[in-house]
Write a structure and sequence with these properties.
Length: 632
Amino acid sequence: MGQLLTSESKLKEVYAHPVGHDIIHRVLTSLKLKDALVNNPIVGNMRLQTLSGLIKKNLGDYGSLLTLLNTEQDIPASGNGRIQEAWWKEAVFYQIYPRSFMDSDGDGIGDLQGIISRLDDLKELGVDVLWLSPVYDSPNDDNGYDIRDYYQIMRDFGTMDDFDQLLSEVHKRGMRLIMDLVINHTSDEHKWFQEALHDSDSKYRNYYHFRPGNGGKTPPNNWTSFFSGSAWNYYKEQDVWALHLFSKKQMDLNWDCKEMREEILTMIRWWLEKGIDGFRMDVINYISKVEGLPDGNETIGELIGYRGIENYFYGPRLHEYLREIRKEAFDPYQAYSVGEMPGIGMEMSKLLTGDDRKELDMMFSFDHLETPGHNRFDDYRYDLNFLKEYLIDYTEHYGNHCHMALFYNNHDNPKFISKVDPDGTYRDVLAKMLAVIQFTSRGTPYLFQGDEIGAANQHFQSIDDLRDVESLNLYQQLTEERKMTKEKALETVFAGTRDHARTPMQWNPTENGGFTTGSPWISGDRDYLVYNVESESEDPDSVLNFYKRLIALRKEEKAFAYGETEFVKKHVKGFFLYYRIYHGDCFFIECNLTPKIKERFVDTKKYELLLSNYEKPGNDMMPYEANIYRGR
Ligand code: ISL
């Protein structure tokens, strides 16, 4: 890349750097400003030093940021060139949260036999690949994202025989299965951690981030955990600290330890040897930490909400470790990989997923899940114009060597549809319109269980309704440390709790939505009486049947996976209009992003209507109307 960036560098020079680009883009977006501002000569020519003086906000020592930038010397390849075809660019993925999907034995917890019993439903929907949230042995402090034994199945979910049966049943139906790979941390009950903690001479000490105790006075650095409080546990008996970015029982692994990496690679190969088709990699961008684990910048910590993040969200050896995993474990099995990467922007993503880079196949970015200035725990109305801008930006700039993951929901977020339309007035049409956008944009669609029936947020009543460690810790922090009233704290927690996504899947209108014959580990409200797979299967106008038609259409036409996209009137707010063009085939998609009736923009009378979320498009566009046509 050449020249190193210093405090003398100009803003436009920083913006030209992939990491600089993504950081500036993030800051500008959060201030509701456009990147074009950097093209303004006065702004673009401003030196970093001047800028930090001007905003009169003590940026503190931004040396760590410059180091972060200067560690990345590569630039993304140009996005031109032919798009390479791949099965995963054409596939429909479906995420299963096993604990809440289907219970086969009445203990109130979903399990592997439950999943097997529902495979035909998924096949009929048109799903090609299942992604299972973790099913490994775990004490469940974070519902399986705290793994105690990578080689065992969680007892609640069944046995390894059940797993083998699941895998073979999936393959029998011509589908694929990918597993969750949680290798940034293990449970504190993992035998490596236990040995490391109890024997300071054990080789496992170096598998984690241990630091001397000083009698427990001050943690080794100021980093905060994503689940509230300091990122360090103090172990009194051993007089030692250990790092955990997530819960107190999720201990971060030390990826600079070669022996630890070897063990992880062996484990990955063991699963691939069984025949699974790949992995979704949990917070994989956090694995490499800056040497010495230096303190986090206070200002960045305040802005982002978590202190220390600049020291690990794009660590110095991240590329090296990803390449090692790919070469040593994935490639020999042609395994597929999608990385969960909070905080990674588009240019950095190109360096992590470009098909020339030999790192990952795809990544999940979360930048579209909240509109600028909001976070997950804010109670607000999501403006779909932001989603449109985000998709246009990726479609126009991600290039042909990267492929986008298209999703609205997962197990870590309240329902997207409820952010847009909190009282559910337009629930069905909106669910269908979002589906149209997801399945006709360029990228690979990922459904989360329940998307296909239009699942919405729950009406939780009390803190006892929740189970998630993040929500419970936050509630405690808000009421005890920040002295918020219980009502206010509950409002905040309910707005963002991950438990909206974790209540039982709704299969039929019987008690507990047919999820269990027992008492479910977490309860939803009585929404299952109307929104459930069985009832929706029988209703031709249901969200579920709409999804089936839409998925079938996407599979018939390669244009949706590979076609070029031509946006129409892209600066007109409230509309999302585009053509998808591929080898002479052309499709037109029109969406009204608002709950208002709007005059139609493009004359579509000459086109052939393929799918609509209203009976028949009229002269005006109805609230959240979405149509797919063939023609031009
Ligand atoms: O919920 C968040 C923190 O406030 C998200 O940032 C989330 O934790 C982040 O996306 C990482 O998620 C993944 O790793 C976590 C686990 O709790 C999540 O369920 C998982 O998806 C730790 O393993």
